[in-house]
Design goal:
408 residues, alpha+beta, binds fe (ii) ion, 2 domains, 9 helices, Immunoglobulin-like, six-stranded mixed sheet, Purple Acid Phosphatase, chain A, domain 2
Length: 408
């Protein structure tokens, strides 16, 4: 049992002697300050997170929504003790199913999510979409435009490339960030990586809101047949600070060992803030590709192919390929835009544009699109293909040209 599970309790109203009336009253006594947001997604589990102004006993009511749109019987999960930072794990869920939930709060904050596909299901017939974006940097107006367009894509999972706020010590900035992200966070499980701006308070607030207690910021996530290594390119244990990246030998060894556990037919992606390659038109100190990340990737590549690396840190969009590695820079999430160098080595496309990407996964097929704030496709690519057809009609309709084609 993981450490987080020790902190959480799951029960139905009919079992464990839960007292809905008492819990609802205690939960309602404290207003929700941040959230809710969704963490640690799986085929059979999801964690609902939120914060309240003072300690309260968190409780989540949730319902499976059938394919016909009809809700099933209501279930509930709750915490054992009053807390401010709530984490309620919903377990024994149905894979690939839609759920609606609400907090026992006043007013009742609501949301929904879809669980990950069952990894044992026929890989060619189960499809899902992943959103990738980042670098919001407390630039509210542009951040809101990106998130609104991104949320409209209805992705099942959101990966964030880091740098949510300018100054992590600024609690008002975090409140604004959560407020702007509200619609996306309440409907899409959220998996971020640490940006350099997240360690301007030594990573305290990031850890409080997004990290699993007692574990490094780097970790891995299995979602259907995709394995995501979430790296920490500003690892303080490696000497990194808010201005200089760093990756420890321990993280590199972990990534290599973790890759050995990934089935050969699964997609291996990496999510990192400062990536292996990037080409700003005007290079600044601590920008460009990070050698430690490149070294980590080369170690992993010897064990399992890395299908793509998704990074941020530079405030533009860049897609490229260097030594067979497909990399993305998705830093157009609201921060003041910068100029990329489209003539950089390996660059396929570079745009100074607010943008985000969606990846459609269907068995061995992975296609992607990069969109602007009006939902217009500015780039499309294929990351993986094979002879086995994708039988999901929604993905067939979105099949894109090959990666190298760079067709827009
Ligand atoms: Fe950054």
């Amino acid at each position: 049992m993981s450490r987080s599970r020790l902190l959480l309790a799951v029960c139905t109203v009919a079992s464990f002697g839960c007292s809905p009336a008492r819990v609802a009253t205690e939960g309602a006594s404290q207003p929700v300050v941040l959230g809710p947001w969704l963490m640690f997604p799986g085929a059979r589990e999801m964690t609902v997170a939120w914060t309240t102004a003072g300690p309260s006993l968190g409780r989540v009511e949730f319902t499976l929504v059938g394919p016909d749109g009809r809700p099933g019987s209501q279930q509930s999960a709750q915490e054992f003790a009053p807390v401010v930072d709530h984490r309620v794990r919903l377990e024994q869920l149905t894979p690939g199913a839609r759920y609606e939930f609400h907090l026992a709060s006043n007013p009742a904050a609501r949301g929904s999510f879809t669980t990950a596909p069952d990894p044992a299901a026929t890989a060619s017939s189960r499809a899902f979409t992943v959103l990738v974006y980042g670098d919001n940097r407390t630039n509210g107006g542009d951040h809101a435009l990106v998130v609104r367009a991104a949320a409209a894509q209805g992705a099942a999972l959101a990966l964030h490339t880091g740098d949510m706020v300018v100054n992590a010590k600024d609690q008002r900035a975090w409140e604004r960030w959560f407020d702007v992200e509200r619609d996306l966070l309440s409907t899409t499980p959220f998996v971020p990586t640490v940006g350099n701006h997240e360690i301007t308070d030594k990573g305290v607030t990031y850890s409080r809101h997004f990290k699993e207690p007692g574990r490094p910021a780097y970790h891995a996530l299995d979602y259907g047949n995709v394995h995501v290594q979430v790296l920490d390119s500003f690892e303080m244990q490696a000497g990194a600070d808010a201005h200089t990246g760093g990756v420890s030998d321990a993280q590199k060894a972990w990534a290599e060992a973790d890759a050995k556990s990934v089935p050969a037919d699964h997609h291996l992606w990496m999510l990192v803030h400062q990536g292996p390659q990037t080409h700003p038109l005007q290079m600044r100190q601590s920008h460009g590709g990070l050698p430690g990340v490149r070294e980590l990737i080369s170690m992993v590549q010897k064990v399992h192919p890395v299908e793509a690396v998704f990074a941020g840190h530079e405030h533009f969009y860049e897609r490229g390929e260097v030594d067979g590695l497909h990399y993305f820079v998705l830093g157009g999430g609201g921060a003041p835009l910068e100029d990329p160098d489209p003539a950089g080595a390996g660059v396929k496309l570079a745009l100074k544009q607010l943008s985000f990407a969606t990846l459609s996964v269907c068995g061995c097929h992975v296609t992607g699109r990069t969109l602007d704030i009006l939902g217009r496709v500015v780039d499309s690519y294929t990351l993986s293909d094979c002879d086995t057809p994708c039988t999901d009609v929604t993905v067939q309709a979105a099949t894109a040209p090959t990666f190298d084609g760079g067709v827009r």
